[in-house]
Amino acid sequence: MRTRASLILRTTVPVLLPLFFVFAVFIFMRGHNEPGGGFSAGLVASAAFALTTVAFGPEAGRRALGLAPRVYLGAGLLVAGVSVALPVAMGEAFGKGLWTSITVLGRELKVGTPLAFDLGVLLVVVGTAAGIVFAFAEERD
Q1: What count of other Cβ atoms lies within 10 Å of the Cβ of residue 99?
Q2: Taking Cα atoms as reference points, which of 81, 77, 31, 61 lies closest to residue 135?
Q3: What is the pLDDT of residues 41-68, one digit of tens each?
Q4: Under DSSP, is residue 112 helix (H, G, I), strand (E, B) or coil?
Q5: Percent of the chain at pLDDT above 70?
Q6: 1 lies in a domain?
């Protein structure tokens, strides 16, 4: 039998979730020049899904995640794999960073394969952590 989470937790989690995701994006984007990146951002995002699961149950956590954890895991492996193999197709060394610039809101933004690799890592971390959290939560029920 599942015990209900505390009223305080159920009240604060919906307020905290957007903050977790904004912080995860901040950590993700900061990761190329300072500590952070895909792994750290993935842990923060995973904590948001874990809190949702603890507060409202595994079904609510799955709804918040949107797709099955294995989809995030597979997509992350694909994105990371392509980002390190793409330079070979361009005649460069395996894993070499390739960069390009795009204009967003009138400002130049540099994007490249290291950013794609970090995105892949983030997806793998979210998929793995969510799968583990859901497995434990469903076992407890």
Answers
A1: 10
A2: 61
A3: 999 999 999 999 999 999 999 999 999 9
A4: strand
A5: 94
A6: no
109 domain-assigned: yes
**pLDDT (tens digit per residue) in 97-138:** 898 988 988 888 888 899 899 999 999 999 999 999 999 998
CB 7: neighbour CB atoms within 10 A? 8
What span, in angstroms and rounded, lies between the C-alpha atoms of 118 and 126? 12
Q: How many domains does the chain have?
A: 1
CA distances to 72, 111, 125 from 42, rounded to whole Å, are 11, 19, 5
Domain that holds residue 21: 7-140
Residue 2 within a domain: no
Distance between CA atoms of 35 and 128, rounded to whole angstroms?
22
CB-side exposure of 110: number of CA atoms within 13 Å? Answer: 7
Q: What are the angstrom distances between the C-alpha of 67 and each of 4, 49, 107, 111?
A: 25, 12, 33, 26
| Residue 58 is assigned to a structural domain of this protein | yes
Cα-based distances in Å from 116 to 25, 33, 54, 84: 14, 15, 31, 9
pLDDT recorded at residue 1:
39
Tokens in use for 5?
């989470």
